[in-house]
Amino acid sequence: NKTHIGLIGLAVMGENLALNMESKGWNVSVYNRTVPGVEEGVVERFINGRAKGKNLHGFTDLKAFVESIAAPRKIMMMVRAGSPVDELMEQLFPLLSPGDILIDGGNSNYEDTNRRVVLAESKGFLFVGSGVSGGEEGALNGASIMPGGSVKAWPEVKPILQSIAAKAPDGTPCCEWVGPAGSGHFVKMIHNGIEYGDMQLIAEAYWVMKNLMNLSNDEMANVFDGWNEGKLRSYLIEITTNILRHKDKSGDYLIDKILDAAGQKGTGKWSVINAMELGMPLGLIATAVFERSLSAQKGLRVSAASQLIPQHASVTLDKNEWIDRIFSALYASKLVSYAQGFAVLQRASDTFGWQLNLASVARLWRGGCIIRSVFLNDIADAFEAADKPEHLLLAPYFCKEMQTLLPGWKALVAQAMTAELPVPAFSSALNYFYSLASSDLPANLVQAQRDYFGAHTFERKDTARGQFFHENWTGHGGDTQSGTYNV
Ligand code: NBP
């Protein structure tokens, strides 16, 4: 009697995923490498601790672990992303049989997953690179799971992965096949980038309420509570309310004692780098990543504050009038962020031939993960409409929403700028929106400059697209054109 699945890596994610699988009726073999010199290893501690009395079988020998799993074997790796995954795969290959399936559930770079799918398949195995979102809590009680890679593996792993996934409010599991190669990890990466954006936007709403409206933490919590009953209903808004109300042991609001220097682990940065590689604007997430970097320069900001703006303009916003405008800025900017994120997914899909289903991706994120929200239903509906929009903001529903939100959004950004209060993500989104809504942009001058100094050529308004011209701007340049590089 062999087990249904094996899981490698008993750190926080692996442990909880194994318990989740077991609770859904699967027999699970678990393995963790043994650290020399440690008396009671990770496996023993787990088996004698949280796993006691459960259908979880611990192994410290990799061969015995592999042999304990029923064919075709399904082995989920929950180890640190990067070289540990490659090392583990090399150790596993000699122990596997053709048709066995490796699942990498860590936060791997999608290009590593592209490579690993090819490598595993060249040896007769199947490889699934799966984003898993939701942290410890999601791993135990239901995560958002984004599998991609060897499609032949999907029918085999589907019952297990869907059983441990979160359920959306309509009961659908938040786990669906994403596409080939590293597409599952690419989608997870964009998810994390969007998470950076959402957090920055909520932080800016908080900052305006705190600094320009002088609201107390409880008053702000009440505003977020109200928003959580409407279109902004989401996990991040909900936890923001709890954070604002939270008091430490001495009875003080903890939020006021937390240092304003944000950390990051790199998935936001990856989203931006990949958007740049694909030639796609992802300004809101980029702003969120850069704001974390700037926040971390606390010392520099403290000395700059007294030197650059010693006396702030005095602006106080009236509560009744301005809460709606902050809502508009937050909701509209969030829409811009998702529109940018999904446009990057579409471009990646076209470039790599992944045939991503964007409606399905939106539905995957409705439960289990950090960015879960009701508004993902509207996004899924927009992408599923008979005439799929060229851009999310051009879907009739969102187009109308943006028109309604614009007056409050721009008033808020203008007011914050006058008050010398930074709202970089609100304003980045607004500038993107204005550029997107401009049939003409000053890029004609950029093209002229490029051609002037580098013979980079330009297209003309009065000829068909695709014909490139070079002007002899100074009368003494040559006619040689530079090779074009267009993303
Ligand atoms: P970590 O990312 O901290 O990884 C620790 C695990 O990797 C341990 O089991 C460790 O074994 C194992 N490991 C390492 Br390190 N090098 C290894 C090697 N060369 N061979 C075999 N095993 C090795 O754990 P985590 O936080 O549970 O995350 C697991 C994965 O899930 C990561 O990719 C992470 O990015 C991703 N993820 C994490 C979260 C989260 O909230 N933590 C959320 C979503 C996704 P040891 O015990 O012997 O050191």
Q: What percentage of the residues does DSSP assign to strands (E)?
A: 5-15%
CATH architecture of the largest domain: Orthogonal Bundle
Termini, distance in Å? 55 Å
What's the total helix number? 19
Q: Mind summarizing the main beta sheet? A: 7 strands, mixed
CATH evolutionary superfamily of the largest domain: N-(1-d-carboxylethyl)-l-norvaline Dehydrogenase, domain 2
Outline: globular
Pairing-aware structural class of the strands and helices?
Answer: alpha/beta
Helix/strand order, N-terminal first: EHEHEHEHEHEHEHHHHHHHHHHHHH
Average of the residue pLDDT scores: 96
Radius of gyration, whole Å = 26 Å
Helix content: 40-55%
Specify the CATH class of the largest domain.
Mainly Alpha
Brief synopsis:
The protein is α/β, with parallel strands linked by helices and 487 residues long. It has 19 helices and 7 strands. A 7-stranded mixed β-sheet has the order 3-2-1-4-5-6-7, with helices on both faces.
